[in-house]
Amino acid sequence: GVVARETTLVVTITAIDNETPSVTFMGPEGNTRTIRVMYPEKLEGVNVGDTVAITYAEALAMSVEKAPAE
Q1: Which contacts qualify for 13-16: CB closer than 8 Å, 24 or more apart?
Q2: In the sheet that 51-61 helps form, which strands lie side by side, from edge to edge?
Q3: pLDDT tens digits for 11-55?
Q4: Scanning 7, 13, 47, 62, which has its CA 20 to 30 A from the CA of 33?
Q5: Is the separation of the CB atoms in 21 and 37 below 8 Å?
Q6: C-alpha–C-alpha distance, residues 23 and 3, integer Å
Q7: How many whole angstroms separate alpha carbon 22 and alpha carbon 32?
Q8: Enclosing H/E stretch for 51
Q9: Whole-Å CA distances, 67 to 60, 64, 70
Q10: pTM recorded for the entire structure
Q11: What is the structure's pLDDT at 46?
Q12: Are 13 and 21 contacting, i.e. CB atoms less than 8 angstroms apart?
């Protein structure tokens, strides 16, 4: 089976690296994460300290099969 979900979080930008390009943000629980930006042009006008909404998707595919007899 396959399970997928899309989540939107409101985060605070704590660092922007235009050379990589990547952005570091702090989530609602105080955790930080750095992610690579797929579309750097989306960072235009975004500054450290800004609050933004980010949406990400996660998916998991799993198959369960009987083990071969020994």
Answers
A1: 13/46, 13/47, 13/48, 13/49, 13/50, 13/51, 13/52, 14/48, 15/48, 16/43, 16/46, 16/47, 16/48
A2: 32-36, 22-26, 2-17, 51-61
A3: 999 999 999 999 999 999 999 999 999 999 988 999 999 999 989
A4: 62
A5: yes
A6: 28
A7: 13
A8: strand 51-61
A9: 21, 9, 9
A10: 0.72
A11: 94
A12: no
CB-based burial, 7-21: b 16+ in 10 Å, e otherwise: eeeebebeebeeeee
Closest CA to 28 of 64, 66, 4, 54: 54
d(CA 24, CA 32): 7
Mention every residue, 6+ apart, whose C-beta is less than 8 A from residue 45: none
For the chain, state the CA radius of gyration: 18
pLDDT mean over 1-20: 94
So what's the pLDDT on residue 21? Answer: 94
What are the start-end ranges of the H helices in the chain?
none
